[in-house]
Design goal:
The chain has 83 residues and is mostly helical. The chain has four helices and no strands. The longest helix is centred in the C-terminal third of the chain and has 27 residues. The protein is elongated.
Length: 83
């Protein structure tokens, strides 16, 4: 199975500088960033290893990841627009 990677650097390449700046200056962003990447690694591991896990478990993890990505995107846009 081909696994699509969802790290933020691939999701938002136009915001690389803003991602680095917010990770360094915003604790809430840094915490969301870490949680997002932890969820991403776990989802990818479960999918790659085809481990027996309930569909709702992976779907819940993916929904949480999308929520985090949306929140971080809003923060990135606001940060970039404040320059």
């Amino acid at each position: 199975m081909q696994i699509e990677h969802h790290d933020l650097h691939h999701e938002f390449p136009e915001y690389l500088d803003s991602i680095h700046a917010l990770k360094a200056s915003s604790e809430p962003f840094g915490e969301m960033y870490d949680e997002y990447h932890q969820l991403t690694r776990e989802v990818e591991r479960l999918e790659e290893e085809d481990l027996p896990v309930g569909d709702f478990t992976i779907e819940t993890m993916k929904k949480q990841r999308v929520l985090l990505k949306d929140q971080m995107y809003r923060m990135l846009v606001a940060f970039k627009n404040s320059d």
